[in-house]
């Protein structure tokens, strides 16, 4: 069972890696096109989107590193494995989105307002809008693939790399729409304030995405419990064991995408000798692992319950 769980994890990794690679290829191509178009048109909104795509590309390289490094086997220094590396690299991706995307967009807003209104080239702006149209198609395709994988995996889609791609692609689609609106209104009205507003909106959007991703990564790095449904089910299973008199405490923590630590303090029914206690402990651990293959670290702190009154 544990072997099957490991194979499922590696298959999921391969699908996630393909999703990240598709997003990376799209972002590299789009970043180059946006940069050229933004420089030719001197468009702050398009340059903000170029910085957004560059940040996403760097972050996807981080996520590819996370997929590889988090699967390293446990060793003496890291006895619970390297699963939390997924969230470490996801945290770096959040910082990258904030610094390279959000802060640069704010800078473009300030620069656009400082320089004020100026004549624009209709041809260059038309080319820039065409670049954004292609970017919208590419980002939308990447987002659809990521959402398809998420829906296919259902409740198992806990991979921070996968969710980061979804967040990045969703922000990219909205950001492109902001940039197109800003450029179009600037071209029509001659007022650069529209593009400044678009750059500001893109920056705020990226800061929000970075905050959400960073907060999630922080929670998992600190140590987050399993979902309440799984915790209740584990406790109910322990309560059903005839040898267990009382479950005094049950602590859980996610160690990785598909690795969970369970630690329970239980009181066994009186009268069991040491050999029976060991057999009961091993049987319970095996039953938990069989039902929840991700619970690969199970610890039972066993004490003998005091005799009940009247016995």
Automatic annotation (TrEMBL):
<dbReference type="InterPro" id="IPR058533">
    <property type="entry name" value="Cation_efflux_TM"/>
</dbReference>
<feature type="transmembrane region" description="Helical">
    <location>
        <begin position="20"/>
        <end position="40"/>
    </location>
</feature>
<feature type="domain" description="Cation efflux protein transmembrane">
    <location>
        <begin position="20"/>
        <end position="221"/>
    </location>
</feature>
<dbReference type="InterPro" id="IPR002524">
    <property type="entry name" value="Cation_efflux"/>
</dbReference>
<dbReference type="GO" id="GO:0008324">
    <property type="term" value="F:monoatomic cation transmembrane transporter activity"/>
</dbReference>
<feature type="transmembrane region" description="Helical">
    <location>
        <begin position="169"/>
        <end position="188"/>
    </location>
</feature>
<keyword id="KW-0813">Transport</keyword>
<dbReference type="InterPro" id="IPR027469">
    <property type="entry name" value="Cation_efflux_TMD_sf"/>
</dbReference>
<feature type="transmembrane region" description="Helical">
    <location>
        <begin position="194"/>
        <end position="211"/>
    </location>
</feature>
<keyword id="KW-1133">Transmembrane helix</keyword>
<keyword id="KW-0812">Transmembrane</keyword>
<protein>
    <submittedName>
        <fullName>Cation diffusion facilitator family transporter</fullName>
    </submittedName>
</protein>
<dbReference type="Pfam" id="PF01545">
    <property type="entry name" value="Cation_efflux"/>
</dbReference>
<dbReference type="GO" id="GO:0006829">
    <property type="term" value="P:zinc ion transport"/>
</dbReference>
<feature type="transmembrane region" description="Helical">
    <location>
        <begin position="87"/>
        <end position="107"/>
    </location>
</feature>
<feature type="transmembrane region" description="Helical">
    <location>
        <begin position="127"/>
        <end position="148"/>
    </location>
</feature>
<dbReference type="GO" id="GO:0016020">
    <property type="term" value="C:membrane"/>
</dbReference>
<keyword id="KW-0472">Membrane</keyword>
<dbReference type="InterPro" id="IPR040177">
    <property type="entry name" value="SLC30A9"/>
</dbReference>
<feature type="transmembrane region" description="Helical">
    <location>
        <begin position="46"/>
        <end position="67"/>
    </location>
</feature>
